[in-house]
Amino acid sequence: MKATCKFDFGVARLPYYPDVPGVPQNSCIGGASLWVFNGRPAAEYKGVAEFFNFISKPEIQALWHKETGYLPVTQAAYELTKSQGYYVNNPGLEVAIKQLTNKTPTPNSMGIRFGNMPIIREIEDQVWEEILAGKISVKDGLDKMVREGNKQLRSFEKLNK
């Protein structure tokens, strides 16, 4: 972005009210996830474990972080990236890491983990469009989000007992 941007910009932590006890807290992380489903053969789980071990190596995570912009998933990968001088040349990219690792995680800052989240987000987007276009009332739209979202959660639960 820095190379093609035609204006100056900066990066800062999210704002917070200083009079709120315990602030600033960690931000919730979002983004891509890797899932492993149950009920598969042992050989597949062995392969999954090998893959996860590979992508979790600090040198792989550091490379992935620098090439994609995704955050490193381990402290060792962050430290390696930092020791390579990456944040000296890209200071704004360390802001998100510091905001996520500011304190010991709390139940409210550990992120959201539930199945079929991308589908549920799509349902929310579609219903908001219906609400904003006046095709459905706000109450009916929110009720629809809950109803359709719950269907997706129940479907995920059935597949992952």
Structural write-up:
The structure is a single chain. The longest helix has 22 residues, at 138-159. This protein folds into two domains: 9-111, Periplasmic binding protein-like II (D-Maltodextrin-Binding Protein, domain 2, 3-Layer(aba) Sandwich); 117-159, no CATH class. Helix 2 packs across helix 3 (75-83) and helix 6 (117-132) runs antiparallel to helix 7 (138-159). The model has no long low-confidence stretch (mean pLDDT 90). The protein has helices at residues 42-55, 58-68, 75-83, 86-89, 93-100, 117-132, 138-159. The chain has 161 residues and is mainly α.
| Low-confidence spans | none
Q: What is the level 1 CATH name of the largest domain? A: Alpha Beta
- The number of domains is 2
* Portion in beta strands: under 5%
Shape: globular
The radius of gyration over CA amounts to 20 Å
Structural class: mainly alpha
CATH superfamily heading of the largest domain: Periplasmic binding protein-like II
Query: If helices are DSSP runs of H or I spanning 4 or more residues, what is the number of helices?
Result: 7
User: What summary fits the major beta sheet?
Assistant: none
Total strand segments: 0
CATH architectural name of the largest domain? 3-Layer(aba) Sandwich
Per the CATH scheme, the topology name of the largest domain is D-Maltodextrin-Binding Protein, domain 2
Secondary-structure element pattern, one letter each? HHHHHHH
